[in-house]
Here is the input.
Amino acid sequence: MKIPRLTVVTLGVADLSKATTFYETVLATPPNNSFAGVTFIELPGTWLSLYPLAALAKDISPEVPLVHSGFSGVTLAHNARCRDDVIAIIERARSAGACVMKAPQETFWGGFSGYFADLDGHYWEVVWGPMFTFAENGELRLKDKG
Amino acid sequence: MKIPRLTVVTLGVADLSKATTFYETVLATPPNNSFAGVTFIELPGTWLSLYPLAALAKDISPEVPLVHSGFSGVTLAHNARCRDDVIAIIERARSAGACVMKAPQETFWGGFSGYFADLDGHYWEVVWGPMFTFAENGELRLKDKG
Here is the structure.
């Protein structure tokens, strides 16, 4: 009965084909289109899925509006292994059509971070931080404080 | 240089303390509050983090507005092991203060799913589906089609 895992993050998109191509390029991972109308990108840990925005809203409830404005209040992050990877990944996203919201730069907390918005305005932070490390399977970990 | 993993999903929240308590209850996972101003919930696979909405917007860019309306276009999902778990988790979220947007029900694609909105209106789907299974480490997998 526990819910110990976020299994899938779904992004509502205007053009499923374009969004799928964008993420295939940025994530360097082949998407799975074998389910009609939805793209699953089976990343380790938690999947990303892409689904037409109106269909996603309707799936939640008829009460959910089909439009949005302002800040969604959600960001996705990729923790990179070093500053150079932050720069390279943001550049790859830009080449694929993303809008760079914040060029990679030092942060007030001692990290190095940039943001891009995908084709539908969903925000990604690409970040390196000195307090983070990775488990053998690639999962993010906090360094021991001792 | 690959970006093979979504490491963190950050939700902007109005009240960090209330949101932290909500997710501690729903996820049954102790949050890590040792970083001033941000809550990390170190789930396996991909973490969830909670951060005040205005600070999150400002972190992206001064151009990002502090308000939002309509549908954010993002949903988070927990794939459950069975229908009864879907019902139990949605009920636990409701008890913790969530708004149930869609009561657990059969879906058109052969699954069983419900949605809730958290204290800040972020949507979660709790879902079981016959095409999904789990790896030993708990990661979501598609069943073999053969």
